[in-house]
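Good morning,

Attaching, inline, the backbone tokens for the sequence recovery test we're adding to the shared suite. The designed sequence is right after.
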């Protein structure tokens, strides 16, 4: 029964604290200025500069992969588990 009493006292204390804080600080003025939420408050974003904005994606991809040669595509293996099994 003592746990129930402690819970009741704690809840009553929190409500009392909320009531006192509301009485002291109150709402009074609006806490949020509605003009901040209007669309005219925010300026339009400037256009971002992109180097390849006029280049089609296929050209960009082919240019990106053109820097690699065919010899680099598949390097030689230094170790193979198959040779270990055959020995």
């Amino acid at each position: 029964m003592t746990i129930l009493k402690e819970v009741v006292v704690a809840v009553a204390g929190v409500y009392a604290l909320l009531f006192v804080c509301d009485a002291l600080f109150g709402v009074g003025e609006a806490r949020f200025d509605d003009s901040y939420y209007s669309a005219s408050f925010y300026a339009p974003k400037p256009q971002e500069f992109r180097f390849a904005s006029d280049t089609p994606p296929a050209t960009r991809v082919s240019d990106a992969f053109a820097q690699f040669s065919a010899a680099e595509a598949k390097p030689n293996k230094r170790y193979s588990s198959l040779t270990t099994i055959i020995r």
